[in-house]
């Protein structure tokens, strides 16, 4: 049975450009839809967070039917693995959903960087969705950006300005990725857009959750 490590944010708040604090967390649809597609395909999904803290949901995302699905995996969400204790050797893929939380913690987490670099070196699938791509920025903290030259998509600047946290966003993930050398390909705002470049699978937004997870299933087959 294939095994996927789903990495979730442990951050419940994001410091904005003006210094105020914005409540955040993981986006319910992205976690629920991804987890459902993967497990329905017979894949074993483990959940991990920085420090093994319980991942907080973004309250604005807690709508049916996603809340019902999350209730069904509540025990797993309550007791995640700590990223520091995880070895990439135990998994066939990493899957990183979004919500603004990853911008606060996964983007600068040393263990996130370690796992992503190891996955790249060993040909392990790396999938990231929406703001989950902020996790890729962690690899620029301790050396060259591991995803320079890679084609990918991400929650776009247009989406951030039009339906995200707007001008007060502390940084734009699309812009950061471009500055570091990624080849960013975004679709129309709120479109189901997925880009695959080798073992890197990325989805643009919540609307891309199911397709991104389906591409992961296909890659593992």
Automatic annotation (TrEMBL):
InterPro entries: Class_I_gatase-like, DJ-1/PfpI, Prot/Nucl_acid_deglycase. Keywords: Lyase, Stress response. GO terms for cellular component: cytoplasm. The keyword Lyase applies. Pfam families: DJ-1_PfpI. One of its GO terms (biological process) is methylglyoxal catabolic process to D-lactate via S-lactoyl-glutathione. Belongs to the peptidase C56 family. HSP31-like subfamily. GO terms for molecular function: glyoxalase III activity. Residues 29-217 form the DJ-1/PfpI domain. It comes from the Bacteria. This is Thiamine biosynthesis protein ThiJ. The keyword Lyase applies.
